[in-house]
Write a structure and sequence with these properties.
Blueprint lengths: L11 E12 L2 E12 L3 E5 L6 H7 L10 E9 L2 E2 L7 H7 E4 L10 H11 L6 H14 L3 H4 L12 H13 L5 E5 L7 H14 L4 E5 L3 H7 L2 E6 L2 E7 H6 L4 H7 L5
Parallel strand pairs: 3-8, 3-9, 6-7, 7-8
Antiparallel strand pairs: 1-2, 1-4, 4-5, 9-10
Helix pairs in contact: 3-4, 3-6, 4-6, 6-7
The structure holds adenosine-5'-triphosphate (ATP).
């Protein structure tokens, strides 16, 4: 007989334990531990400068590109230490893709923007295979119909919302397992924002998605789990519903009710 009394336990995709981040003497992330669920959206919220983006960048070693930045602690992707010497950060970033605040298509054609990652990683053996990857990625990013007749046009000629969906197509073209999104809608108008939010909801069936957002409404709309950061500390991490309706910590309560931030 099916046992319905057991709680549903999601698979953990990324497990961080005791993570600290320093920029020179600035201790920006303090002993953060978090398990990120697979096939769900996790939102990072908190006031400006609390360390959301810094922690997000730990998850695909983007902080490696910042000279003064030092990261300690353990971060496991499917149980493997992403900071191990044997891990190539470029390969890691194919598994853990990223979309940035400002849409940043390459000054190349729409086609080449999407084909860029698959080319670097040798994912297609023929032009037909590459065409397939490009089309599938653009379809999944909900922009195929708008660009299918102008794949040779420059990606930078699209509207801001289209550019961001192109960047999402580029990020998913290498079939990542985790998608990191750092305030992906902050440069978009409300209609383009709604479009990207719908897309996030569709994509979560396929990836673990982690989104940094300044908008509590957005976190409530798109995520299943929410982590609240304050002054470099992860104060509370729970089901989004709980964080927004019945948080445990007074600092979370104060933030979600607009008392600071
Ligand atoms: N590239 C960097 N070099 C030096 N210090 C940095 C760098 N990036 C962030 N910091 C510092 O780390 C701390 C956390 O910043 P971070 O950008 O991660 O916060 P955030 O919560 O994402 O902020 P916001 O919501 O304003 O984007 C801040 O004190 C910030 O000044």
């Amino acid at each position: 007989m099916k046992d319905d009394s057991r709680p549903l336990i999601a698979d953990t995709k990324v497990s961080a334990t005791g993570v600290d981040v320093y920029y020179g003497d600035n201790h920006a992330i303090k002993d953060v531990s978090v398990d990120i669920d697979d096939k769900a959206v996790t939102a990072f919220i908190g006031p400006s400068g609390c360390g959301k983006s810094t922690f997000l960048r730990c998850l695909n070693r983007m902080n490696d590109t910042i000279d003064i930045c030092r990261v300690t602690g353990d971060i496991l992707l499917d149980g493997f230490d992403i900071n191990a010497k044997s891990v190539d950060p470029v390969q890691l970033r194919a598994r853990v893709g990223m979309v940035f605040q400002k849409p940043n298509p390459f000054p190349k054609s729409i086609y080449d923007n999407v084909a860029y990652g698959p080319r670097i990683h040798g994912l297609a053996d023929s032009r037909a295979e590459m065409d397939e990857i490009v089309e599938t990625s653009l379809r999944r990013a909900a922009i195929w119909d708008e660009v299918k007749d102008r794949l040779d046009a420059s990606g930078t000629g699209l509207s801001g919302g289209q550019q961001q969906r192109l960047c999402i197509a580029r990020a998913i073209a290498t079939s990542p397992e985790v998608l990191l999104m750092d305030e992906p809608c902050s440069a978009l108008d409300p209609i383009a924002t709604a479009r990207v939010e719908e897309l996030i909801d569709e994509l979560r069936g396929a990836f673990a998605i982690v989104i940094v957002t300044h908008s509590m409404q957005q976190a409530a709309r798109v995520s299943q789990k929410t982590a609240f950061f304050h002054l470099g500390v992860m104060v509370e991490y729970d089901a989004t519903e709980k964080i927004f309706h019945n948080p445990e910590d007074k600092r979370t309560q104060d933030y979600i009710t607009g008392r600071f931030g």
